[in-house]
């Protein structure tokens, strides 16, 4: 029999009753009907309380409850219509007052409105009266709210959760908890808590089904626990938490014959008798009570038992709040199992009694492992699914694989009941409804916390009680979110840089519970619809469509459907395929929430201004042309989101007086854009950034913002624009009167032009709460000091709670405050003086992080700075050209230092003495210190895990104490040309990675290398003197061995013992004569052996018919002894996916075995100079997707067109440095062109160079659409180009004039001294490709609006260019697919503004040193498949908004030398289509992306193809680190 679910209608009735109790001024004439409605609602609530207790009559009662819910929603609509009319009239009054008009009510008849509302109210009253009269007939009576016993689980059929200490048969096989058990057992048995009147309590916390009880049993039965404790007691508590019942249970376990004692005092007396003098372990399983008083009552009774020192309680719970209430020992947060561990459980259940076959069928195992993934790390699910898989064949497993776990029968009820217990413990009906509403999101959706709270609010689920006068709906929502989080309903939380939760997810099982609960709420399905298309919406019957309250639609054209959705509260159209919002949106009177983010909408209808009830409006990632002025009518709006665009900002924002969220305000010169608009926004909270403050003319204007009154703002940013040296006094006065509220926690001041700060930045009356202060690009700031309020007070403390201070690019600053009692992080960058550091450090003792960059005239750190800050854990000094000494020594200080980074300090000769005393140091990184001669480490740094030395050419040797750094895991030595040897003789047991490169005098590897038995990765590059004569015996952990450009002797002894090797790369090693057998290297995934001049054969493992390399998927081979007439024979490798072949002059064909590599997707052919034609058998490579041909100077012919068309998957062909083939592949005219014209991507320079044809007329057929005008030769006077029969194109290379032919399709300008583009460019209306590069004197580019056929556009490396064309990339460029821009005037602080190009697929951005971020418009390029970021030296982190580029497949990052951070893991995982990531010449990021040890590695480890390169020196193209994945 179905349960009666009442919490939904409870909340609706409460909301309607609250509305009916309000004083609505338009009720004149039918107050009696509304009074009657209030009484009827009260009666319905009373009867509902009885329905909640109903048993045995659920069918009739359920129907009654459903009808009541329907009537309650109708009443809600009626009363909400009253509310809407009040708001509408209020807006009209404001409009007429503004226009100074009267008699505006003549447009709307109030009498007619009252009559209509009276009729609707009577109808609701009649329905309620009828329903209340029917209640008695089905046995329902009115109950007082105080009536009845505890009802924690009313109406819910629960699984019996009584647990016992003994293991059930299915619990004896425990997986993945060994380390946790060992840790807890050690903690409990080694506990030093043997005090009197003390009980140790350890909580085990985790969501339902995660195995808390099983873990507790493992501990309970552990041998050491049995030895340590005299008594063990197991009690399943569950709910309710009754102290006497728990005590009685304990006594019963100790003495079964004493069961049944009722008196609490008698129970305690017996416990005293039975436990006195004994150490006991008490397990309280499944605790839900978070009432500290009840817990204290229990502990008090247990402490009455004497002489039980060392006794311990283990508590298992799903709630973090419960854990916090009870814990005295660190709690155990139970983690999910891995997919492998779930697979082991599945196998155990599917094949009981060890009946699993030793060699499981491969297909069946693949299905089983996929099912294991569906378990999502929850062992309970793995057990249930494993039981279902028992005795089933592959087909049966496949059916489970394709179903969802909730399609199961008995098992579904068991799991759901366990999870539902958490739900039933939620205190309020509104909280339960909030949880149920989460079913609107799809599974595994990343939920934004604020968005979720706004959705709850829009549904009316966050009602304020009469007593909560100081609270707001958002506060209730935050409280609800935290409760659900603490009860494990949410997981995978993400936090911002300030440790505030911003996003979360729901476990699939929890989501299923939300769906189950939501469906059980009767008509809820018709009221809330998620992921529904427009066509399905149109199919909803007319009698039901008005009931809809929420619609999440990703559909197409909305048409007229909105007119029928009259009851809608929430409309979420995010990512919907729509380009306009219908005018009918204004008819949705009840709408509270509207999200049109990431759509194609460019204009909002004026009718949006009629949504007077709207609370939340989200318009992120929209290319809006303008905001309608009617937005100012949304007087109920609390949260608004839109993109930052200085050219488009809503006017009259000050009228939105209910706003709580406005993340930024852009000050403008226009009316309605002034800073005074902020005055009326007194409810703003959270974060506010104010941009373009240069438009504020003086302090009096700044005062009008009334910032000090906005006491709920916690994060505030002030930013000016431009280089404004003449605005020193103006900025100072403006900032003086922008005095922020005293509750502020974070403050940023950017591009302030004053020479000193306002008084409120120098007195101690404002910043009691401030935790983070950032001052950036205040280039004229000279003075910043404390001032005393009275002469007798002395120096005051400006920032008593400041934890982080960041001073950047304040070049002229010479002083700073001296007292920061709580400062933990100090970052100072780009200053001409070291005085601010000296000032700040005077009394500083609390630092944990110190970062100093680009400080001129700094010769050493202030005296005593390191000694006073004993908790310093991170120290970085970078780019300080005059630094000669950090400190003399570190004896007696820096005991907590964990990471030390020194880079770009060219005059630093030695590190401080006493480094060996830094016992906590884990990372020591030294880079680009050209004068460094000594690293004084004579003893081991016992905690050091990573040691890296880069580009220290004067360093003669590594520290002697290196071999005593016994915890070392990673060693990197690069470009240290004087180092001869590496002092490791005994071996380092934990060393996992060694990278040595560019050490010209290094003659040998460490003698103790063979004793480094944990080594996983060994890379030696560009060490011209080294000899790699190394026995590899015992290197069983080695996974990657890379040898590149080693000129000395190479002898790989015992290579066959490296059985874990996955990557072997040996290239450009001229003295490699032979390679031993690879037969035992069965884990090898990539093998590269090329350009080894004396090598005459491939390894036997490739040539042998007994093929063992079954996991090899990538092979690079060739470039052997030049006298060989043919390629050495090698065996067919059926699973190979990528192949690169290197040839030599004598070869005239490819090895024929290649035609049998039918799995090949990538083929590269390199340096086959003797080959004239590619073989016809290439047609057999039917899986081929990419063909790369380079450095084959005599190659002329591709396979026949028939053969090329057999390669149906071929998408990319690249031809480089193959002059004959390149000429034959010129588009439309080359004889080979027709063979490749069908391929989507063709790369290569297929153009005619005109630089040598001075004064000539060059004629091309009219079909030749590809023409480059390559302005390479400054001395050229002119070239005339004639296309077909058209008018000749006379080009003047000095740029004075040009007559352009309108059929021209491709133009390239790369003339270094071109001051301007020739006139008439706008007439090239057929132009498809425009390239403007290396034009360093170019100052302006004319409008491109008329070039509507443009597909590819390049504007880059133009150092004189300060702006892009007018209306850059206007809406007329609808064909533009590829764009490359950047590297403009280097004094620009930001990227020139350009418009969003929605259809763009390929984008390359070139930066310059002053840029610290990417242009934010890029986040709106949602069709982008390829993004290249080049030379953004000022950027340290990629933006979080990168997650929005959902179509991105390729991400390339080049020459960003200071880039360290990728977006968060959550953001990277949003890029579900990303297949390739290339990182080139980004040394910091490359290091941080190191596999296994790099902190950025987890963010990219899921990406299939990763390439990381460094390029150094004029003759070196690239140093490739083999693909990791």
Question: Key features?
Answer:
ten-stranded mixed beta sheet; 24-stranded parallel beta sheet; single chain; 1525 residues; Rossmann fold; 34 helices; alpha/beta; disordered C terminus; Arc Repressor Mutant, subunit A
List the helices and strands and how they pair.
Layout: H1 7-20, H2 31-52, H3 58-99, H4 110-135, H5 178-189, E1 200-205, H6 212-220, H7 223-228, E2 231-238, H8 243-254, H9 264-275, E3 280-287, H10 292-303, E4 312-317, H11 320-326, E5 332-333, H12 339-350, H13 362-374, H14 379-389, H15 394-402, H16 410-424, H17 429-437, E6 447-448, H18 449-458, H19 473-486, E7 491-495, E8 501-505, H20 508-519, H21 524-527, E9 528-529, H22 534-538, H23 542-545, E10 550-552, E11 570-572, E12 593-595, E13 616-619, E14 639-642, E15 664-666, E16 685-691, H24 699-703, E17 712-719, H25 728-736, E18 746-750, E19 772-776, E20 804-808, E21 825-831, H26 835-841, E22 849-855, H27 865-868, E23 874-878, E24 899-903, E25 923-927, E26 946-950, E27 970-974, E28 993-997, E29 1017-1021, E30 1028-1031, E31 1040-1044, E32 1050-1053, E33 1063-1067, E34 1086-1090, H28 1100-1103, E35 1114-1118, E36 1138-1142, E37 1162-1166, E38 1186-1190, H29 1201-1206, E39 1212-1216, H30 1219-1224, H31 1233-1236, E40 1241-1243, E41 1257-1260, E42 1278-1283, E43 1289-1292, E44 1306-1309, E45 1329-1333, E46 1352-1356, E47 1378-1382, E48 1402-1406, E49 1426-1430, ...
Helix pairs in contact: 1-2, 1-3, 1-17, 2-3, 2-4, 3-4, 5-6, 8-9, 8-10, 12-13, 12-14, 13-15, 17-20, 18-19
